[in-house]
């Protein structure tokens, strides 16, 4: 409220403020104030009120000055909109670093912090992992279990309270980010097959990031053949070499090499192909006739 323009020739001692409940139709005292501001307490949120003010000096009270329109009791600001879904920017077997974008609307009050919630993939239960003070849009969650996949979501805080949770992050497995390759040797052993048999070498390959895998035959790099008699299939963490209808010419030494930025690993296996002997066209028989 503003100071009266005419104090009647005597200093203003204080002001009387009253409120009007539009539901009951009753005016009641809010309080008195020596200045032009006062705090109105015990208002019911969402309810309409009107107000009137009288100035008081040594000669008495002024006429009422009434508010122009009813006022709804509510905060001048609201909770913020949800933040963006967080991105996992770094990770290990036991932690993940997150970053996210602030809400597009802070509700009229500055962001005072964030809450990071987490859950294991396929679980419906979200738990609080960490609370961030201030408008710092990054955080780290520790204590993760290796091999589990996790999702995260963010809640923004301002003076009015917490926002709705934002969209969850994509599932992310807790695992090493940088790991030298290691080829599983269980299925990579020297082998003897019969001509015409099918041969398959199948091996898992650990490593982070996933290793680039190549195969060699007698030290020369090989690839899948167009007639599909030899097929090489590489996917993250696994490699396969299949030979259909093995021939004697397939016999020899095979090398599989896995390599990433952290190191490399190589395994050599030997293939032996056995077959019936060839038909001998240049054959002579010698002996004595009886």
Describe the structure.
This protein is mainly beta. Helices cover about 0% and strands about 45% of the residues. It has no helices and 23 strands. The strands form 5 sheets. Strands 1, 2, 3, 4, 5 and 6 form a 6-stranded antiparallel β-sheet that branches. Strands 9, 10, 12, 13 and 14 form a 5-stranded antiparallel β-sheet that branches. The model has no long low-confidence stretch (mean pLDDT about 90).
Q: Helix/strand/pairing class, anyone?
A: mainly beta
SSE pattern, N- to C-terminal: EEEEEEEEEEEEEEEEEEEEEEE
Percent in helix: under 10%
Task: Please report which band the strand proportion falls in: under 5%, 5-15%, 15-25%, 25-35%, 35-45% or over 45%.
Answer: over 45%
Note poorly predicted spans.
Answer: none
* Main sheet record: 6 strands, antiparallel
**Mean pLDDT over the full residue set:** 91
Supply Rg: 41 Å
* Quaternary structure annotation: single chain
Report the principal-axis shape: rod-shaped
Q: What is the distance, rounded to the nearest whole angstrom, between the alpha carbons of the first and last residues?
A: 144 Å
Keywords, separated by commas or semicolons:
single chain, 290 residues, mainly beta, 6-stranded antiparallel beta sheet, 5-stranded antiparallel beta sheet, 23 strands, 0% helix, rod-shaped
């Amino acid at each position: 409220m503003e100071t009266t323009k005419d104090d009647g020739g005597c200093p203003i001692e204080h002001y009387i403020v009253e409120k009007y409940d539009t539901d009951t139709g009753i005016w009641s005292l809010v309080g008195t104030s020596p200045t032009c501001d006062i705090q109105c307490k015990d208002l019911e949120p969402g309810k309409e009120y009107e107000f009137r003010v009288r100035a008081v000096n040594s000669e008495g009270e002024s006429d009422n000055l009434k508010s122009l329109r009813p006022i709804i009791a509510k905060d001048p600001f609201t909770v913020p909109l949800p933040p963006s879904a967080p991105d996992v920017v770094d990770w290990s077997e036991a932690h993940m670093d997150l970053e996210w974008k602030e809400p597009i609307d802070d509700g009229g009050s500055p962001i005072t912090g964030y809450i990071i919630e987490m859950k294991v993939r396929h679980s419906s239960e979200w738990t609080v992992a960490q609370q961030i003070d201030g408008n710092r849009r990054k955080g780290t969650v520790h204590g993760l279990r290796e091999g589990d996949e996790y999702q995260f979501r963010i809640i923004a805080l301002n003076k009015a309270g917490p926002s709705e949770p934002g969209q969850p992050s994509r599932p992310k497995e807790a695992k090493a980010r940088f790991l030298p390759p290691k080829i599983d040797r269980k299925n990579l052993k020297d082998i003897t097959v019969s001509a015409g048999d099918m041969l398959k070498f199948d091996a898992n390959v650990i490593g982070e990031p996933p290793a680039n895998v190549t195969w060699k035959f007698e030290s020369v790099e090989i690839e899948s053949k167009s007639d599909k008699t030899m097929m090489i299939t590489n996917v993250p963490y696994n490699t396969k070499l299949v030979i259909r209808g093995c021939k004697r010419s397939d016999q020899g030494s095979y090398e599989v090499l896995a390599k990433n930025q952290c190191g490399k690993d190589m395994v050599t296996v030997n293939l032996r192909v056995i077959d019936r002997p060839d038909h001998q066209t240049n054959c002579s028989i010698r002996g004595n006739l009886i």
